[in-house]
Amino acid sequence: MQTAQTAILSLPRAVGRSAIGALAHVGRFSLMLAELFRALGEWRIWLPRTMDEARSIGAGSLFIVLLVSAFAGAVTALQTGYQFQGNLPYYVVGTLVVESIVLELGPVLTALVLAGRIGARYAAELGTMRVTEQIDALESLGRSPMSHLIIPRVLAGLVMIPILTIFANAIGVLAGWWSAKQVLPISNGDFTYGAQYFWRPFDAYYSIIKAFFFAGAITLIPCYMGFNAQQGAEGVGKATTTAVVATSVTILLLDTLLAKLLLHP
Amino acid sequence: MIELRGVHKRFGQQVILNGVDFSVEEGETVALLGPSGTGKSVLLKHIIGLIHPDSGTIIVDDLNVASLGRKELAALRSTIGYVFQNGALFDSMTVFENIRLGITDEKCNRDASYCAARVPECLALVNLTPETAAKFPAELSGGMRKRVGIARAIAGRPKYLLYDEPTSGLDPVNADIIDRLVKHLAETLGVTSVMVTHDVRGAFRVSDRVALLSDGKIVLQGTPQEFLASADLRIKAFLERDFDTHSFAA
Ligand SMILES: Nc1ncnc2c1ncn2[C@@H]1O[C@H](COP(=O)(O)OP(=O)(O)O)[C@@H](O)[C@H]1O
Ligand SMILES: [Mg+2]
């Protein structure tokens, strides 16, 4: 009885506390964004570092991104082929593979994979730099952590993640095409006919716009978490897992939001 | 000149600094002593604005550190060299690049030939060979990392140097070299320095004045002679303990 009462009473308190915590995060996150924009003038510092970072995340992530989207394309083709067998013309497989890869699977799977790869890496790197005082050391030299550390990582992601998504789309569609031909009597002509039948150029833009927003989440959230990591190895671990979870959830929220805003305005 | 007046700082419930008054005159070297965990590093970080005080003022070079804007703070910091207790080297960069980042003057920093000459010069001052420049921090021993940290802090020819336990963990030979470097920089270049240390003998040898931080306050700030003559129990305890360990080792 007693414990039930305290539990009920502590609920609003816990809600209040986490609401304040969330507000504090929003505040500090906005401050980071403001500082980030202010440091954009120091292009001499961030430009070469952005190039290095872009090369490293591009080369490092290409294989896994292509692998995941190839499987996604293949499975989509096999399953639609199975579902519609005998009921719809075969060219529908072409339509479904292209539309589901370009509109949804390409950008979202790429983003979720990269949240684990790039996001976790950013959070762990910056978190380690925070707890080993490397960020303090940078500031002690009168240098801006924004132009040295954050801007290069964010810009590299904003450039490379949409590019990786374009590759993922292409490979996903090709893999779907190939798999469809393995199990169905579908010709290349059927597939391309289906692919083009419902195709709108906006679909390609939509895919890239999504990738761009996801790139924002994959870079900014982990950078923020790592930058504000608490002391010790535990702090770095916590920053990294929180970053990956928060980024993944944000990607799914953005996915829904963009579908509503851009496809059903 | 560096001056702290009535500086208070707490982390959560834990009071670290409880009204610290501390000053360093132009060209002077002050050693800051104190048991570990009393907040010596916290005090030092207040001086370059890495930690902000809850109350009290910090004046460096006639500037109020807490009220400086982003640009002025960066400009002030580039005249201060800070040696971190654990080195705080950038581990994704070579020793060369680490020290190059310490060259805070942007013109010099972009001048490749200046840097190629300045980096080995700084390495030599901390008794490291030029070959060290190509290594990564992970390839160095703890004592070498510490000395690279010192080389990075002095590379920009700062007006102020803040050393956080520069000799702890070093072998006696290199500790001696660092002590002499601190003295040399102060005497020949007129650098104003604060040196946090546990090494009472080194502190007495190098510094003009000594201060003891205990229980969030500066117990005494004075010459080594005043320090030795003090009747304060906390000072006596600190000196005695050091004396004991040395006689034990001998
Ligand atoms: N950023 C921080 N957040 C919370 N506590 C801190 C922080 N920095 C230092 N402390 C605490 O302040 C106390 C003094 O630390 P420090 O200045 O490092 O001691 P020392 O005199 O050995 O250098 C320690 O108890 C430490 O845990
Ligand atoms: Mg310390």
Topology record:
The complex is a heterodimer of chains A (265) and B (250).
Chain A: H1 2-38, H2 43-83, H3 91-131, H4 134-140, H5 145-183, H6 188-197, H7 201-227, H8 232-263
Chain B: E1 2-11, E2 14-24, E3 29-33, H1 40-47, E4 55-60, E5 63-64, H2 70-77, E6 80-83, H3 95-102, H4 106-110, H5 112-125, H6 142-155, E7 160-164, H7 172-189, E8 192-196, H8 200-206, E9 209-214, E10 217-222, H9 224-229, H10 233-249
Parallel strand pairs in B: 3-8, 3-9, 6-7, 7-8
Antiparallel strand pairs in B: 1-2, 1-4, 4-5, 9-10
The structure holds adenosine-5'-diphosphate and magnesium ion (MG).
Give a nutshell description of this structure.
Chain A is built from 8 helices and no strands. Chain A is mainly α and 265 residues long.
Q: How large, in whole angstroms, is the Cα Rg of chain B?
A: 18 Å
Bound molecules: adenosine-5'-diphosphate, magnesium ion
Q: In total, how many beta strands of chain B?
A: 10
Q: Largest interface, per-chain counts?
A: A-B, 16 and 24 residues
Mean pLDDT of chain B: 91
